[in-house]
Amino acid sequence: MNPDANVVDTVIDAVSAVFMIVGAVMSLAAAIGLLRFPDLMSRMHAATKPQVLGLFLLLAAVGLQLRTWWVWPVLLLAWIFQLLTVPVSAHMVGRAGYRTKHLHRELLSTDELEAVVLKAAEAAKAPASDGGRSPAAE
Amino acid sequence: MMELVLTVTAVVLSLAAAGAIVRIARGPSLLDRVLAADVLLAILGAALCIDMAVNRHLNNLMLLVAVSIIGFIGSVTVARFVADRREHLNES
User: Fold this and answer.
1) A97 touches chain B (CB under 8 A)
2) In chain A, how many domains are there?
3) Contact A92, B75 (CB under 8 A)
4) With A119 labelled, which of A14, A99, B25, B76 sits at a CA distance of 20 to 30 A?
5) Owning domain of residue B59
């Protein structure tokens, strides 16, 4: 019984060590991507790696090292809140980057937002040409 | 083995934090700096996790949950008020 427990202990230690090293390498990959990618959109692609997968691997390493069951719901809570909040900030940064033209158009393979933006601009222009502002002007 | 893991992750995370700080200092636009600050926060969370895992305590757990809940407010606020002040577009 005792040698079995030792083997299980060693295996759990090795798995959590691998998780920790891979999670740290995710952060390094994000930093390299931030330094080397040419524009904001591709830098955003690199920046999400430590925020989701890196945090998941490191939280799993914490849970494996502590070897208690009650800590897993708290770690899951931290990860789920990260999953809920990271897309919000990424959406806002990407939207602001698109509207202020922080992107290289020649690097885009497709731009699905452009048609929507043009349509919205047309819709906004149509009432204005009918004298939509005339009560304010008079 | 844990000492080796701690050394390797400390070196890797220090290099990653240095890269993010270089991007904050050099970033051509405000949004690049905000993005690099988000990455720096993620690296800080990774360092807190590794400290807890190697030393087998839970002192940083509530700090980690709080960071993951409210960490996005800063970048959302900055992205809401960003404006384009550059001379030439498509330069970034």
Assistant:
1) yes
2) 1
3) yes
4) B76
5) 2-80
The alpha carbon of residue B4 is apart from the nearest alpha carbon of chain A, in Å, by 9
ipTM of the shown complex: 0.84
Q: Which tens digits make up the pLDDT trace of A14-66?
A: 999 999 999 999 999 999 999 998 888 888 888 888 889 999 999 999 999 98
What is the DSSP secondary structure assignment for residue A108, as one 8-state letter? Answer: -
Residue A41 belongs to domain spanning: 2-108
| Both structure tokens of B43 | 């690296």
Q: CB count, 10 Å around CB of B34?
A: 25
Q: Which positions in chain A touch B43 (Cβ < 8 Å)?
A: 27, 31, 50
Rounded CA gap, B58 and B27, in Å? 36
DSSP A105: G
Q: Which residues lie closer than 8 Å to B36 by C-beta, 6 or more apart?
A: A34, A47, B20, B21, B23, B24, B27
Question: How long is chain B?
Answer: 92
Evaluate whether residue B91 is within a structural domain.
Answer: no
